[in-house]
Amino acid sequence: MAAQIKFGTDGWRGRIAENYTFANVRRAAQGFARYLLENGKKGQWVVVGYDKRFHSENFAAAVAEVLAAHDLRVYLTEGATPTPVISYSVVDKSAAGAVNITASHNPPTDNGFKVRDEHGGAIPPAGLQRIEALIPASEDEVQRVALAEAEKQGLVVRFDPAPAYIEHLKTLVDLEPIKQAGFKVLVDPMWGNGAGWFPRLLAGGNTVVEEIHHVRNPIFPEMKRPEPIPPNIDVGLQETVRRGADVLLVTDGDADRIGLGDEHGQFVNQLRVYALLAYYLLEVRGQRGPIVKTISTTTLLNKLGQRYGVPVYETGVGFKYVAPKMLEVDALIGGEESGGFAFRGNVPERDGILAGLYLLDMMVKLQRKPAELVELIFQEIGPSYYDRIDVPFTGDRHPIEERVKHARPQTIGGLKVTGFRTIDGYQFMLEDGGWLLIRFSGTEPLLRVYCETTAGERVRPILEDGLRIAGLKP
């Protein structure tokens, strides 16, 4: 019997040629096909796209062959395509859903299999469990039709999703003021799908856009992985200073996440970026609506909610929780600690391209560079300091979970513990409004220890106490 395929925080990911094989990708595709048919989608279209990792285009073709053999029709992207563009294409094409071959920010050894619903958003946990249950036990059970034959029959159609997505973006943000602002923008697409998008969108004005790491290279040189946080973006931050750029925009491997570097070559962490984007929509654009946040992101959002009279909803980690909640409450913005943000008027999916454009528009509207925007947020709603430690993990996780679950520290990092939550992992609330979170990653074999606090000098002591609570530090 073949290995079991498990969907984590955002789809299924595995090591190429070990458990991520053509046979297993086909099995996963058949599970999704059965799920769609079970939900009355027979004869409908499914969008299939992919990233620039090793063999991604061929894995995507294998998916298309399986879907086409199950009374489904496939729009297959002509080239590597950002996740938000694939998700928007679902809505634009009135499709039943999507399969995206990408491992997002994972190491170069990995690839992945993301599924999306008819809204272009993540499928909720119950749906993912059902897809898992419908995956055949062996490749021998998989039905497929050769790609050439499927294309001949019109069951698979290749398409360019860019034009429709670009026209959609223009309804959400006025690009002309950004083009004429005279910015020097440095973009690091991390060898991934975001390459070429900002130069294309912002061409024809006084703003200059330069890119680094913008060709296909599946080993991701000069970084550990295409995740838009240090040390992966250190080269980009150095280049920001060397080139005299006003801002650094970083998109991860599939361009659904955004990283931000300021004019001094300093990283603006993703919690602060979320606060900036929410402030931009609420204050600068005067919009109103609920905020959806995972428990691992900033309490600055709770303060903004109080200030502007909008509700703030907290979920578990992952867009499989955020996207359904956004749809339920018609949220203005939804986001998570990883740097993924979704917006009303767009699909309920992280969009690093739109997030980057909103940050540039904020710079235009407020006439401030990124470091000045962070200072403005601190003045308006208070400071935020954050960090995270990822500890590689193998073996039985149960002893660590039991240790953390039953821990009842009185103080953490010198701050009184005021509460304890188990929405996703184990979160200790602190007297300054900050928190410590200990949880296992849903996409990789890692134990994550995160914290947010109001004073920079407290970050390290809080994280070290977190490692002690987990039994990973004496």
Shape: globular
Any idea how many domains? 3
The major β-sheet equals: 6 strands, mixed
Query: What is the fourth-level CATH superfamily of the largest domain?
Result: Alpha-D-Glucose-1,6-Bisphosphate, subunit A, domain 3
CATH topology description of the largest domain: Alpha-D-Glucose-1,6-Bisphosphate, Chain A, domain 3
| Contiguous runs where pLDDT drops below 50 for at least 5 residues | none
Oligomer: single chain
Q: End-to-end span in angstroms?
A: 43 Å
- In the CATH hierarchy, what is the class of the largest domain? Alpha Beta
Please compute the radius of gyration using only Cα atoms: 22 Å
Mean pLDDT: 96
Residue share in β-strands: 15-25%
Name the structural class.
alpha/beta
**In the CATH hierarchy, what is the architecture of the largest domain at level 2?**
3-Layer(aba) Sandwich
| Helix content range | 25-40%
| Biggest β-sheet: strands ordered side by side in the sheet | 1-5-4-2-3-6
How many individual helices?
A: 16
- How many beta strands in the DSSP annotation? 21
Description:
By secondary structure, the chain is an alpha/beta fold. It folds into 3 domains: 153 residues, Alpha-D-Glucose-1,6-Bisphosphate, Chain A, domain 3; 211 residues, Alpha-D-Glucose-1,6-Bisphosphate, Chain A, domain 3; 85 residues, 2-Layer Sandwich (TATA-Binding Protein), CATH 3.30.310.50. It has 16 helices and 21 strands. The strands form 4 sheets. It has a 6-stranded mixed beta sheet with strand order 1-5-4-2-3-6, with helices on both faces. The protein has a 6-stranded antiparallel beta sheet with strand order 16-21-20-19-18-17. It has a 5-stranded mixed beta sheet with strand order 8-7-9-10-11, with helices on both faces. A hairpin with a 4-residue loop joins strand 19 and strand 20. Helix 1 packs across helix 2 and helix 10 packs across helix 13.
